[in-house]
Amino acid sequence: MIPVFFAFIFVVVSPSIAEDSNKALRFGNTTNDHITWAVSDLTELETQLSVCSWVRRLFNAPYPVIIHYYPHTHGFLLGSRGNHNYVVGRNLNLRTKYGEIPDGEWFHVCMTWSSTDYTTIVYLNGEMAGSKLTRHKTIGGTRDGKFTVGNAASSKHPTYIFGGDLYKLNIFKRVLSVQEVRKMSANMCSDEEVRLNEFRSFRWEDIFSKPRSGSVTEISVCTDGQAPAVDQEEDSTGQTVISEGILERLESTEQELTETKQQLATIQSTMSEELAIVKSTLAEISKKLESTEQELAETKLNLAQSEEKLRNVTETWNQTLSEIEADKEEEVSSRWDALYSEKYLDKKLTKEMIQETGLESTDGDILGLFVGVTITEDLIDYLKQRHDDTVICL
Question: Beta strand 374-375 with 348-349: parallel, antiparallel or unpaired?
Answer without folding.
Answer: parallel
